[in-house]
Design a protein that fits this description.
The protein is mainly β. Helices cover 14% and strands 44% of the residues. InterPro entries: ATAP, ATAP_core_dom, FeS_cluster_insertion_CS, HesB-like_dom_sf. Residues 7-107 form the Core domain.
Amino acid sequence: MTEQNAIILTESASFAVKDVLKSQNLEDGYLRVSVTGGGCTGLTYQMSGDEQPSDDDIILEYYGVKVLVKKSDAPVLNGTIIDFKESMMGGGFTIDNPNAIASCGCGTSFRTKNVAGTPEDC
């Protein structure tokens, strides 16, 4: 794994993130992508705006969007693609994590080989 592969933000997702950061008055800020314990299958994705990186962050940039990932989250996220899809019902972010061996219908909860979780209803 290289730190540059921690996550990949598509062009479509980058434009959507820019809009969200602008609405939060964080035009010069960062998108933080992280993983927390919990959720239907053991782990949950988190995305939020952040003003500055910390010492244990990996800093990536895609289409003008600066992305922060904690070094400790990088192995679980390695190769994850974040996209934004539009449909007749609206739009939303999609997350495709090649390390996930199980996920919940909610789309934000997952389990990897090395993390135990108990699937429950979302």
